[in-house]
Prior knowledge:
Elements lengths: L4 H19 L4 E7 L4 E7 L4 E7 L13 H18 L4 E4 L8 H11 L5
Parallel strand pairs: 1-4
Antiparallel strand pairs: 1-2, 2-3
Amino acid sequence: xxxxxxxxxxxxxxxxxxxxxxxxxxxxxxxxxxxxxxxxxxxxxxxxxxxxxxxxxxxxxxxxxxxxxxxxxxxxxxxxxxxxxxxxxxxxxxxxxxxxxxxxxxxxxxxxxxxxxxx
Length: 119
């Protein structure tokens, strides 16, 4: 029986996360989720099990509500970098989940780097 796209995505997501946890113990995780309508990012402290900061293209304050393009991803990346500074986070490891590192996901990561977050 062939695996469905969802099963393959879950396997890829867990594989990426487990490799990053082994290498970057103790660092905060910048987790990205991309859907057809929004893109969001969270800074997660896995040791404490809490979310330190979050940003999404669904927020009206960012001015890109209802969009999920590279422009929206760039604004979300800049917002998460700014909120990371407020939370006292200087560096994090980038958890792309099961998504490929190009397009909107890459734009978010680049904007976070430009905003001062070390990934």
